[in-house]
Please model this.
Amino acid sequence: MLIRLISPALILSLALFLAACGSDDPSAEDRAQPTGQNDVPTVEIAVHNDGYEPAHIQLESGTTTRLIFTRKGESPCIEKVTIPDLGVDPVELPMNEPVAIEVTPESDGEFTFTCGMDMVGGTLMVQS
Model:
């Protein structure tokens, strides 16, 4: 009787474990894609002392996307963010306060966003 109770639980646990393992496909890196918020694609980005999370974001060219940066670290390096190739001058990032920046990349390519000191960065990968 005990074996009958353990076997289904063990099988379910193993199935959940394997499903959580995910893929080792290197093309499935930590790339974020926007989710909708008020009909505007939105990506939330945490800003830590050692970088952005997510650091790689896929966008569609010609589509306005809202990037919401929230600074979580104390480093003076991450007090600002800039996206120079998309015309976004340095924007102040107060601690633990979401700051929305809307961008509309008009062409395909990779565009970097960086801290105010250009030491910590991420990539906007834009495709049609």
